[in-house]
Specification:
This protein is α/β, with parallel strands linked by helices and 250 residues long. The chain has nine helices and nine strands.
């Protein structure tokens, strides 16, 4: 009991997540004062993952003047299996559709459509097979290199039978290293671009954990998204979500 009291007094994310769990708040936004992986286990122990998913993932929305890209998993799963990547694709597509965007998924690798037989490229091929089997409506292709995913001339030359007829807008990586490095390279080399995230996929209730260096406007962006997620969670759909939400921010 004493240990629990110490945790409650010293870790505001526990208070905030308990408020969401027991209906005193609708969403949690936290993280500016610490690392994501410091907060996620605390929140996940209280607000469990959804019953229909097995893992939690992090999705980033990158917005430049001429392109919107969703990247995953940039923070959570170090080396996801093919099964996990397939589940990640499914959850990412649901999130992208909530933005009113048609998702087109590219499973990224250093190889193009079997040109290399490394464990990571084979894993991405297997993820595509699982996605096609379980969620055949998803537009997905891979494994492929990033330039192939974003350039339809390259795609047509290398793999004219591709399921993607437009550039991919959902980029799934074989591990957290490649995803996080790619995202931060994009962020640093495109200073006029913006991003929203990380968006936590697979949580049972809305919990969002900002990067420690997030400026105020990105905290505002993720708070607005948390409100939408709270409305979806409480009403079961965007169209019917009308009530005022109470976002607990720490």
């Amino acid at each position: 009991r004493n240990e629990a009291a110490v945790h409650l007094r010293s870790r505001w994310v526990i208070w905030a997540t308990l408020m969401v769990k027991f209906g005193m708040a609708d969403a949690v936004v936290c993280g500016i004062s610490g690392r994501l992986m410091r907060y996620l286990p605390l929140a996940a122990n209280i607000v469990n993952g959804r019953n229909d998913v097995s893992h939690i993932f992090a999705l980033q929305l990158f917005m430049s003047k001429d392109r919107l890209l969703f990247l995953a998993d940039t923070h959570v799963q170090a080396n996801p299996s093919a099964e996990q990547i397939a589940e990640m694709a499914h959850l990412a597509c649901i999130e992208v559709e909530n933005f009113g965007i048609e998702p087109r998924v590219a499973l990224l690798s250093h190889s193009n459509f079997g040109s290399s037989k490394t464990p990571q490229s084979i894993k991405m091929q297997e993820a595509r097979r699982i996605i096609n089997q379980r969620w055949p409506h998803i537009q997905v292709e891979g494994e492929m290199q990033a330039d192939t995913a974003l350039n339809m001339e390259t795609m047509a030359r290398i793999f004219p039978a591709s399921n993607l007829k437009e550039p991919a807008n959902v980029l799934l990586f074989p591990d957290v290293d490649s995803a996080n490095i790619s995202f931060n390279l994009m962020r640093m080399t495109a200073p006029n671009a913006d991003y929203i995230g990380p968006i936590m996929l697979g949580m049972d209730q809305p919990v969002h954990i900002l990067a420690a260096d997030a400026p105020v406007h990105r905290a505002v962006n993720i708070s607005a998204l948390a409100v939408v997620h709270a409305q979806v969670h409480s009403r079961g759909g965007l169209a019917a979500a009308t009530r005022k939400t109470r976002t607990s921010q720490r």
